């Protein structure tokens, strides 16, 4: 069963949606956002973007498989000049300098130009695009901004299902994209390995390997140029480029600063209390392993019951 993500067509409704206080925040889309500048009309021509942007080598994902698999790494990391990437991914340039072959696909998540590994800042990395793109920062405190990332992809590229620990806006500027979501309480149905799902092909999951995945409630929306997608922290999402795509992804801290890892440059580390609890759990398991199997099972269930009572808001 699928549910649709709410779509809003005016700024007042969008603002009210973001500000409402509900037990479970959900994703939403502002269609045809009016506060992101002239990028939608100008960047639709890849030639304009390639000429406008300052050229430099960028690290990209290259794969023959549309469904990129982070665990098994069915892609390779390669360096390619940014202008060349735009022309290749958009299909404008015919060439023979393949990394794999003529069917290869490209994906860029720009990691920044700073040699010191600082947080990515779109405005600083691409000032030449500043006159075209305006940050939609009126909907969160500017001092909470964490990072802003340029994303470029070939048609059909699908990025693995994962969650973010930061709230973020995904601003779709060029092309169309399908976003599929699962609520945080669906975690046990997604066969997680760390922050990512082991299910690579979400449209055709293996029912024998992933039986619970088939019953997990999913939410779907197709993004158009000019859409601003709100992705709440902890919501699992899977993104598929339906055509050549360019987007800017803006992350901010929606919680108190002290809850975030100060050394986290990429915004993918769990919150400090959660990371501490995970390390404690490793020690707890080591203690239980000192017991015979039947005792270990018994006390393990006791601990699960305590967590259910104290922490969970949905049945498992």
UniProtKB/TrEMBL annotation:
List residues of the JmjC domain.
100-269
What GO terms describe the biological role, i.e. biological process, of this protein? wybutosine biosynthetic process
Q: Which Pfam families match?
A: Cupin_8 (PF13621)
Q: Which SUPFAM superfamilies does this chain map to?
A: Clavaminate synthase-like (SSF51197)
Gene Ontology molecular functions = tRNA binding
Output the PROSITE patterns linked to this UniProt entry.
JMJC
Alphabetical list of PANTHER family matching this protein:
HYPOXIA-INDUCIBLE FACTOR 1 ALPHA INHIBITOR-RELATED, TRNA WYBUTOSINE-SYNTHESIZING PROTEIN 5
- Write the protein's name: JmjC domain-containing protein C2orf60 homolog
Record the organism: Lepeophtheirus salmonis
